[in-house]
Structures are given as structure tokens and as C-alpha cells.
Amino acid sequence: MAFPTHVKLVEMSPRDGLQNESSDAFGGMVPTEIKLELIHRLSNTGLTHIEAASFVSPKWVPQMADAKEVMQGIQRRENIIYSALTPNLKGAENAIAAQANEIAVFSAASEAFTQKNINCSIEESLTRFEPVIALAKSHNIPVRGYVSTVLGCPYQGAVSPEEVARVTKRLYDMGCYEISLGDTIGTGTPLNAKRMLEAVSRDVPMNKLAAHFHDTYGQAIGNLYAVLEEGISIIDASVAGLGGCPYAQGASGNVASEDVLYLLQGLGIESGVDLEKMIETGYWISDKLKRKNGSKVALGKGRTNPLASTCG
Ligand code: HMG
Ligand code: MG
């Protein structure tokens, strides 16, 4: 396979990036205005898809308790999809009522992780998604699917490419228009990533698959290179590498959007997203959360705008 000429970058920071944020900068909870300002700044970078929030149980993920206020408070751009993660019908109803442009359902290729994350088996999760997908279809809202633990599970260890392929195909056959493959704990390596993708893409077209790699072991950019070479053209990433999964101990953030953009530039692949604006946004949110910027490219280049920390 050849490298794609264009990659769609799906920005994860307002959801995956913040869902596990425990920074004491704001006494634990990131204020809704900061989330909205982050989404606003991201909307100015050229992104076309931002996962803005998740409509999950606030008992399970307190940081997303203001999903409705976030979704309703966005200064929308017509060309940008603001999507929401939903585990069940209740979440989907709330997301649609709050005007999510797209919803996403999430399962995994590991039974143990699915139990910890959404308190049911893989099969039960797929059954739960049936009415979610039907509801979304009746509103003409596209549904994205996620499969977690595609390159390893924090509870079960190794995960077979065949199981990843099975769950991915089920979600695709159920009507998800795109399936994002999550290396939830970032333990994958380029060869494993390639083998997993080879198995999955036998059943689901490559252009319907996204790479969602966390960078816990520092392998995400290498893994992305490997799957780009296989033909992947949709990448999930998070500005400043924000994030981690609340039900995957030790998992660090998604690969940093800035680092992905730099990789794509080097490969001559278009994304339509402005690296400098992304770097500025990454420094802004890192300052607000009082965390070290997790983008290697941002740290290497330094602040492009010396006022970034004081302009908002
Ligand atoms: P449960 O406890 O089995 O569900 O949780 P339940 O139906 O018994 O409900 C428990 C309570 O939650 C009830 O409230 C429900 O009303 C409420 P109570 O009666 O006790 O007051 N509830 C809800 N409230 C708001 N919105 C909802 C909702 N559903 C129920 N949608 C459940 C099951 C799925 C709800 C729970 O396990 C959950 O919310 N899990 C979410 C976990 C999560 O968000 N994990 C992180 C996202 S996944 C991820 O990060 C991976 C990904 O990035 C890819 C990768 O990296 O691999 C996507
Ligand atoms: Mg994730």
C-alpha cells in the first residue's frame, strides 16, 4: 500500500484529553468555559472534526458531567463536526438533544476491559448499541464506532488481531460509518499495529478505519507511520497529548496532534490543519491545566506566540 495523500485528523482533547484530567489547577473539575475556549481555539486550526464531550454516567466519569453545557455552548462552525461519545441510549438521547453532529459508540476487543469500562460484556455492549444506532439514523446523525484495546489490554494482556477484526466488523455491519481502533494503553509496536490492521482490513475497508493510538510507551508516532504505510487516512489525536482513560490504569494521553501534524508534513501528506495554531493551542491548555506540554514537537519548537499564556 502507498501512503495516503490526505489525512483526516480527529481531535480528541475535549473528550479523551479531559475525561481523566485530575489537575488540581481547578480543584479537580475543569470549568466548562475552559472546555469551550479549548474547542473554540481548536476550531480555528483548520480541524474538521472535534470530539467535544461524552454523555456517560457522571458517577463513572465526573469530568464529563457538563457534557450538555459544553455541547450547547460551542460557537459552531458549519464545516466542523462536533461529535459526542455515548455508551447507551440515554447518552445518545442526551447527545442528540444537545445537538451533537455525530455520536460515537464504544466497545473493546477484550472482555475484561469492557467490563471495567462500561460494566457489560462485548456482546451486551453491541446489543446496547442497536437502539442507539437506530435513534441516530432516525435523526440522520452518523455513528462512529470505537474498538479499544486493539494492541493490548491492561487486564487481559495480549489481544488477538482476529478478535479485533471480529468486533470491528460487527460495528461496521451494524451501521457505524467509521471505526476507530484504539491502542488504549499505548503498548503496541509498529509490527503489531501492522498485523492488527491487516487482519481488520480484510473485512472492513481501509478508508473506514481510524488509528487511535495512546502514547504511553512512546510508540505512537512509529505505529502511525506503520499504519499510514498500510493506507490508514484517519488519525485521532489530542493537542498537547492530553489525556488518559479512567479505566486503563497508567494509560497516558493520545498521541499529540502537533506531533502527528509534523509527521504528516514530513511525509508530504495534507491535513488542512495549521501546525503553528495547534502548537499555540497546546501551550494555552497546558498553561491552564498547569501541566507539562506533552507534545515533543511543541517543546522542540518552543512557543510560537510569546503571548499564548496570557491571551485568554
Ligand atoms: P452502570 O452503572 O452499569 O449503568 O454503568 P446503569 O444503567 O446501572 O446506570 C447507573 C447510573 O448512571 C444511573 O443513575 C443511570 O441513570 C446513570 P442513578 O439511577 O444511579 O442515579 N446513567 C447515565 N447518566 C448519564 N448519561 C448516561 C448514563 N447511563 C447511565 N449515558 C455505563 C454503565 C455505561 C453507564 C457506565 O459504565 C459508564 O458511563 N461508563 C463510561 C466509561 C467511560 O466513559 N470511559 C472512557 C471512555 S472510553 C475510552 O476512553 C476509550 C476510547 O478513547 C478508545 C481507546 O482509547 O481505546 C474511546
Ligand atoms: Mg482513547
How would you sum up this structure, described in words?
The C terminus is likely disordered. The termini are far apart. The chain is 40% helix and 14% strand. Strands 1-2-3-4-5-6-7-8 form an 8-stranded parallel beta barrel, surrounded by 7 helices. The chain is α/β, with parallel strands linked by helices and 312 residues long. The radius of gyration is 18 Å and the shape is globular. The chain contains 12 helices and 8 strands. The structure holds 3-hydroxy-3-methylglutaryl-coenzyme A and magnesium ion. The site of 3-hydroxy-3-methylglutaryl-coenzyme A has 26 residues, from helix 4, helix 5 and strand 5.
